[in-house]
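Hey all, quick one. A colleague (J.T.) asked me to put the zinc ion job into the tracker so the inputs and the C-alpha cells live in one place instead of scattered across chat threads. No bug as far as I know, just bookkeeping. Sequence used:
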Amino acid sequence: MSESRNAAIAGAAAWFDAGVLLADLRRRVGIRTESQNSERAAELVRYLTEEIGPAVERLGFRRTLWANPVAGAPPMLFAERSEDPSLPTVLIYGHGDVVAGHDSQWTGGRSPWDVTEAGDRWYGRGTADNKGQHTINLAALGQVLAARGRLGFNAKLLLEMGEEVGSPGLRRTCEARAESLRADVLIASDGPRLRSDRPTLFLGSRGAFNFDLVVDLREGAHHSGNWGGLLVNPGVVLANAIASMIDARGRILVAGLRAPPIPRSVRRALADIEPGEPNGPAIDANWGEPGLTPAERVFGWNALEVLAFRTGNPDRPVNAIPPRANAHLQVRFVAGCDWRTFIPAMRTHLDLLGFARVQVRPADDEPMAATRLDPDHPWVHWASASIAATTGARPAILPNLGGSLPNDCFADVLGLPTIWVPHSYPACSQHAPDEHLLARVAREGLGIMTGLFWDLGEPGSAPARERAAPPA
Ligand SMILES: [Zn+2]
C-alpha cells in the first residue's frame, strides 16, 4: 500500500479522534428533520441550505436545490465537484430526513435531538439512519482532498429529505435529471453491516410489496349458537387461503411468488455469510425454503409474511360469527421478480383453489423494486479489494440487503453499478428510541471510505468505463 494512502487514512483517524466528526454529527442531529411530521417542512429545507449545502461548498462542490416533482414533497440537494470529464464520476446518495423522534421514550431521559455518548455508543435520532452515514462519507471526501489536494475523480451528491416517507419524487427526479446525475458508479451508505465487526458491501436490496387479503361476507355479526354451522366464517376462509399460499414451515406455495434459482455468483458470495446478531433472536432451522442456508433464505430468496390478521374483535371476543376478516401481508423479493405480476398470480392461485371470495388488494405503500448487482461485477471486486487493503480483511459481500431501499432509482433508472458500504449495525435501534451509531464502526467506516475515495482517484484504479451511449 502506498505511503500517501496510509497517511490519508491515518489523517482521517486523527481527525476523527479530535472529535470533529462527532461535532459535525451533533449539529446535524440537532436539526429536527422528521419527514413524517408536516410541521418540520422548514427544518427539512434548512438541513440542506444551512448545513449540508455550505459543508459541500467547502469541499469545492457547486450546489443547487432541486424542487421535488411531487407537490408538497421536500426538495433535494444536488451538488457537483467536477475535476476533469475524463476522470471517473461517482454519485453519492444519502437522506437527511429521519423518522419521528419519539422524544419521551428514550432511556435515561436522553433527547433524540442531541448526540449523547455512552461508552462506544453515540445516541441520537439519525446517528445511524442516515446522518451519521453521509456525514462519514462527506468527511472522507474532505480527507482525500486534504491529503491529495484534489479528489482525482468527479463527485456528485444527491441528498433527499423524504426517504422515511417512501422517497416521493426520487424516481421521477432520476428520470428527469438523468443527464445531471450521470456517473460511473453509485457509492452510498445506509443500513447495517452484517455484524458490527464485519465491514460489509451490499449491492442492492430486496423489494417489498404489501397487500391485503379481505374476506367480506355480510353486513353484521350473527350469534354463533344460532348460526354456527349455517354461515361461512370469513376468518376460517382467510386462514385456509393463507395456508394455501405458504405452508406451516414457511415455504411459499404460490409459484408466482417464488424466487428464481439463485445464481452461482450469488451463492458463492453468500457462502461465508452468517446472518443474525449476537443478542438477536435465534434463527429457526426449519423455516422457509428447504435446502437453503440461512444466508440464502434472507438474501437470496423471497419471503411471504403475515404482518397482521384480524377477524371479529381480538381484544373482546364475543360469541358471534364475524362478518369480515382481513390480513395484511408482505412479499420481500429478490431481483428477477416483478411485483406487478404478484396480484395476478395470487388471483389465479386463489381462484383455482376455490377461494374466489378472498379479495387481493395492493396496500397504499408504494412497492419497492428489487435490485442486485452481480457479485462478480468489476466494481465489486474493486471495492472489495480497497476495503481489504484498508482493514486487512475481505468484507462480507451481500448481493442485496434483506431490507429495502430506493436503489432501483440508481440501478434501473440511472443504470449504475451500485455499491453500498453501510456504517451501522443490526442492533442500532434504527427507527426506534435509543438509535445509536457505534463510534468504533464510524471510525473504521471513515477509514474505509477514505481508502475507497483515495483509490478511486488513483490513475487507472477504477474499472474501465462501460457507459451507455448518451441519450440522442
Ligand atoms: Zn430509515
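Adding what we noticed when we looked at it: The pocket of zinc ion is lined by residues 129, 164, 430-431 (CB under 6 Å). The longest helix spans residues 131-148.
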